[in-house]
Amino acid sequence: MVDVLLGMQWGDEGKGKIVDFFAPHYDIIARFQGGPNAGHTLYIKGEKIVLHQIPSGIFHENTTNLIGNGVVLDAVTLKKEFDKVASFGVDGKKNLYIAERTHLILPTHRALDKASELSKGNEKIGSTLKGIGPAYMDKTGRNGLRVGDLLDKNFTTQYIKLRLKHQRILDSFGFNEDITEWEEEFFEAIEFLRSLKIVNGEYFINEKISAGKKVLAEGAQGSMLDVDFGTFPFVTSSNTISAGVCTGLGIAPQKIKEVIGVTKAYCTRVGSGPFPTELHDETGERLRKVGNEFGATTGRPRRCGWIDLVALNFACMINGVTQLVMTKADVLDAFEELYACTSYGIEGKQQKMVPYQMTKLPIIPFLERHKGWQMDITSIKNSESLPEEMKQYIHFINEYLGVPITYISNGPEREQIIKA
Ligand code: GDP
Ligand code: IMO
Ligand code: MG
Asked: ∠225-36-6 over CA atoms, to 5°?
């Protein structure tokens, strides 16, 4: 049996915290897409850690963690992350498995990402510059190198061949930064990667499922960053939605049971691209300040705005969401009034559908006003104690989406979560 947990917005919904909270109910936590562009924040005994490559189940002794074939893996980041989790007393080597079909991010992929973004000027995507796009391009372009190739004695020859190809593209961009240091780090890190548990991911996970083990597939990024259904071209390069679980782990669709969508009580986006409910005023600034909205991977300030129910409804549809977790509800504690976008105004018409092209036509969000609860909810433990205005806000969202909010997160700590 497989449940899926994924982001409903433009990433950073708090997936890491929620996976860590749910992990004790699962035998395996598996990442199925994305790479070190992800930054999943966890608080372990009051101390913060951000995970980029390692699944968020790593702090649970009895949980197996799998990096699935759909991920793009940066060995350098992974190696550094092992040191980070070790400082929390966790031996990453014990419970982490890596699928041999997982594609590798090479130093030249990072260079290509940078060169490509620089060449776009004002139209840049705002990539995390981790080499994600070029690594996935080499996967679909049938050039990439995979974790399994590391065990082949010809790996270095294959690497040099691909590097030459990349060099020609870099030359055409006029990119001439020295990446020797990146390469040195890379070769050191792949030596380390070779010492880890590299498995045939699809057999590994299907055998576990047949033996009755419970799997939680951990999404990275968010549904609106999906390469097919997000705000293209301002998206990432993988399928972030529930469909990505099948291809990213090698499991059949009928094995998937619950699809848990994580959404903030408001909305954020980091990087470029359309964001209909974005606030450019002091309210946006207030959300950023109270919510501490700065990127976990790049430190960039996140753009902030009200919750967008049109986009959320779309994400529920595309993912087949069965339940929602609302995070960062406490960030709204002091707000006198809240707004929720219930439809888009495009070319003078009101609609509840996400359009094909969000970048070309201006979208005016139709906002519905709600009374704020103006109360500190951070130590509330059960839903009965939640303020009435908040219950109404939650009820309104449930009704609009037709999907229940089953948990409300009221702070960054593991224990700060309420069953709705
Ligand atoms: P992810 O990428 O979806 O895992 O999310 P990030 O870790 O990038 O960003 C979420 C941020 O919000 C992190 O700093 C979390 O510690 C924090 N966070 C998560 N849930 C809550 C919550 O309910 N309340 C507050 N105040 N912060 C939260
Ligand atoms: P988590 O898992 C928020 C954004 C980037 C950029 C676009 C493309 O922490 O939610 P990429 O590096 O993939 O080429 O960047 O996607 N982006 C994220 N935004 N959270 C993330 O991950 C993101 N991963 C990528 O900012 O706009
Ligand atoms: Mg994040």
From this structure: 45
